[in-house]
C-alpha cells in the first residue's frame, strides 16, 4: 500500500515477503522481483489485484497504489539473492546467519531514499524562504509616521526574526543533505567493490533516520512561517506556498513515518553507550566521535560573557556537543531504570521515547547538521561569501540553542538566567546584518523563475505586477458563476397574502 508509481504505471515491484523453504522452515523476510502488469498493455496479471489510492493532499503527479496477490506464482530466480539464496534442491543459504541482521542488510538500501528526502526538504524550504524574503523586500506597509515613506516589511525586526532563522536552516540543510548524499554514494561504491561497509552503513542509517525527520519537520515549520509571513497574498494558490506545504507534508510520512523512523537513531546511540563502544572506531563519518570525551563534555558549563562570544561558531559547537552528550546520558539512565523495573526490550523502547530517546535523536541530528555546516564554512578560503555564511552558521547555531534552552538549564550547562538572554541578543544582533544580505543569499539558492513559478517570488521584484497578472489571467475571473440564478432575486415569486 502507498507504493509510488504502483497505482497506474509500474510493471514490476520489489516485494518483501515471508520466505519458507520446502520443509516449512521460515528463513525471514526476503525481497522478490515481482511482475505486476503486462509491459505492453499495462493490464494486471491474473492473481494480481492492483489499483490507485486516489487523490492526495499533494504530490498528485505520483500514482500511489495498493496491490494484493492471490495464489500468484513467480520463478525461484526472482528471489534477490544478495543476502540469501535457495539452490535447486530447496536448501537455503546465507552469509548472514541472524535473520534480523539479514533483514537489516537488505533494508539498508532504504537509507538512500531517506537521504534523498533530506534534499527534497531542503529544496522545498529553499523555495519557500526565497518567495517570502523577496516578497518581504518588495512589500511596503506602514512607517514611523504618516508623513514618512512606508517601510518594506523586511525592515521590521519581527519579520526578520520570522524568516532569517529559516534562511539559515535552509543553508544548513542544503550543505548537510549534499554531504550525506556524497557519503552514501561512496559507501555504495565501496560495497560494490566488496569492502566491509558495515560501520559506515550503520552510521548512515542512524544519521538518515534522524536527519530525515529533522529536515522535513524544519521544512514544514519554515514553509508555514513563510506562508504566514506573506500575509493574505501567501494564501493564494498561485503563490505556490500551499503546494510546497502540501508536497513537503508527505516527506514527514513516507520512507518511514517520522516519529517511528527517528527511533532508529536513538537505538543506535543508546546501544553504543550501553555497549561501551569506542565512539571513534564506530563512527567513520565522525558524527559521534566527539563522544569519546563524553565524561569531560558533561562537566562543561557555559562560560561566554557576551553576545559576541556565544555567537562564535566554535562556542556553539561546544554547546551542541554538550547537548547531545547530556541527552544521551539521561536517556541511557532512563533505559537502565526501566530495565530495573523489569520491563523487556520492547516495553523499554516504548517507554523511553517521550522526553528522552526522541529528543536525543533530534538533538543528534541538529548537532550533526550544524557540525557539517561548520566544517564546510570553516574550510572555505577567506572571502565576503564566507563572512556571510559565517553569519548564517551563527544564526543556525543560536537558533538550535534557544530551541533547546530548557535542556541546557535542566542539565546545568546554563547556570544563570542571563545566559539564555545572551543567545537571544546574539540573534537580535545578527538580524540587521543578515537583512542586508538576505536578497543575495536567497538569490544564491533560488531556482530559476520558471521553476519557482510564484508571483510573490520572481527575481525582478515586481511583486504587484506579477500578482496582478496571476489574478487577472485566472479562468473565469470576471465571469458570473454557473449557479448565479440560484442566488439572485426573482421578481416573479408571488408575495404572501396577509
Task: Give a structural overview.
One of its GO terms (biological process) is lipid homeostasis. Pathway: Lipid metabolism. Residues 108-269 form the Acyl-CoA oxidase C-alpha1 domain. This protein is mainly alpha-helical. It folds into two domains: 12-83, Butyryl-CoA Dehydrogenase, subunit A, domain 2 (Beta Barrel), CATH 2.40.110; 110-445, Butyryl-CoA Dehydrogenase, subunit A, domain 3 (Up-down Bundle). Helix content is 55%, strand content 7%. It is built from 18 helices and six strands. It has helices spanning 99-107, 110-138, 157-192, 198-229, 241-251, 258-261, 263-274, 294-298, 307-310, 313-340, 345-351, 353-378, 384-403, 405-410, 417-445, 449-452, 463-472, 484-487, and strands at residues 12-20, 26-35, 48-52, 65-69, 85-86, 92-93. Strands 1-2 form a two-stranded antiparallel sheet. Strands 3-4 form a two-stranded antiparallel ribbon. The chain has a two-stranded antiparallel sheet with strand order 5-6. A hairpin with a 5-residue loop joins strand 1 and strand 2. Helix 4 packs antiparallel against helix 5 and helix 13 (384-403) packs across helix 15. The longest helix is centred in the middle third of the chain and has 36 residues, at 157-192. The radius of gyration is 27 Å and the shape is globular. The N and C termini lie far apart (65 Å).
Amino acid at each position: 500500500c502507498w507504493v509510488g508509481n504502483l497505482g497506474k504505471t509500474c510493471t514490476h515491484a520489489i516485494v518483501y515477503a515471508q520466505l519458507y523453504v520446502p520443509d516449512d522452515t521460515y528463513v525471514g523476510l526476503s525481497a522478490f522481483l515481482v511482475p505486476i502488469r503486462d509491459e505492453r498493455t499495462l493490464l494486471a496479471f491474473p492473481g494480481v489485484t492492483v489499483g490507485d489510492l486516489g487523490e492526495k493532499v499533494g504530490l498528485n503527479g505520483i500514482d500511489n497504489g495498493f496491490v494484493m496477490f492471490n495464489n500468484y506464482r513467480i520463478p525461484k530466480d526472482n528471489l534477490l539473492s544478495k543476502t540469501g539464496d535457495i539452490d535447486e534442491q530447496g536448501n537455503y543459504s546465507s552469509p548472514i546467519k541472524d535473520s534480523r541482521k539479514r533483514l537489516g542488510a537488505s533494508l539498508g538500501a532504504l537509507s538512500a531514499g531517506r537521504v534523498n528526502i533530506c534534499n527534497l526538504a531542503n529544496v522545498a524550504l529553499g523555495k519557500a524562504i526565497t518567495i517570502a524574503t523577496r516578497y518581504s523586500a518588495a512589500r511596503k506597509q506602514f512607517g514611523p509616521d504618516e508623513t514618512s515613506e512606508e517601510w518594506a516589511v523586511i525592515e521590521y525586526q519581527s519579520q526578520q526574526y520570522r524568516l532569517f532563522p529559516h534562511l539559515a536552516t535552509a543553508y544548513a540543510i542544503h550543505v548537510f543533505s549534499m554531504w550525506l548524499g556524497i557519503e552514501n554514494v561512496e559507501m555504495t561504491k565501496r560495497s560494490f567493490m566488496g569492502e566491509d561497509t558495515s560501520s559506515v552503513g550503520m552510521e548512515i542509517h542512524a544519521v538518515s533516520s534522524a536527519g530525515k525527520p529533522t529536515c522535513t519537520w524544519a521544512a514544514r515549520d519554515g514553509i508555514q512561517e513563510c506562508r504566514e509571513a506573506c500575509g493574505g497574498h501567501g494564501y493564494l494558490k498561485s503563490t505556490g506556498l500551499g503546494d510546497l506545504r502540501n508536497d513537503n507534508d508527505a516527506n514527514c510520512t513516507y520512507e518511514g513515518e517520522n516519529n517511528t523512523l527517528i527511533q532508529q537513531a536513538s537505538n543506535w546511540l543508546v546501544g553504543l553507550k550501553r555497549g561501551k563502544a569506542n565512539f571513534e572506531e564506530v563512527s567513520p563519518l565522525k558524527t559521534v566521535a566527539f563522544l569519546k570525551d563524553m565524561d569531560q563534555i558533561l562537566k562543561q558549563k557555559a562560560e561566554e560573557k557576551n553576545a559576541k562570544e556565544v555567537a562564535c561558531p566554535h562556542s556553539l559547537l561546544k554547546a551542541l556537543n554538550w547537548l547531545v552528550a547530556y541527552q544521551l546520558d539521561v536517556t541511557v539512565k532512563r533505559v537502565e531504570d526501566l530495565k530495573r523495573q523489569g520491563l523487556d526490550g520492547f516495553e523499554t523502547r516504548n517507554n523511553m521515547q517521550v522526553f528522552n530517546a526522541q529528543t536525543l535523536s533530534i538533538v543528534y541530528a541538529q548537532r550533526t547538521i550544524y557540525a557539517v555546516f561548520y566544517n564546510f564554512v570553516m574550510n572555505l578560503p577567506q572571502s565576503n561569501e564566507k563572512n556571510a555564511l559565517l553569519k548564517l552558521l551563527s544564526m543556525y547555531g543560536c537558533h538550535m540553542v534557544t530551541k533547546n534552552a530548557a535542556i541546557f538549564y535542566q542539565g546545568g550547562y546554563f547556570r544563570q538566567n542571563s545566559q539564555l538572554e545572551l543567545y537571544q541578543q546574539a540573534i537580535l544582533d545578527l538580524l540587521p546584518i543578515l537583512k542586508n544580505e538576505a536578497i543575495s543569499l536567497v538569490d544564491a539558492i533560488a531556482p530559476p523563475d520558471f521553476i519557482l513559478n510564484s508571483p510573490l517570488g520572481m527575481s525582478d521584484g515586481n511583486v504587484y505586477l506579477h500578482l496582478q497578472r496571476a489574478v487577472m489571467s485566472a479562468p473565469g475571473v470576471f465571469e458570473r458563476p454557473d449557479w448565479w440564478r440560484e442566488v439572485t432575486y426573482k421578481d416573479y415569486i408571488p408575495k404572501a397574502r396577509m
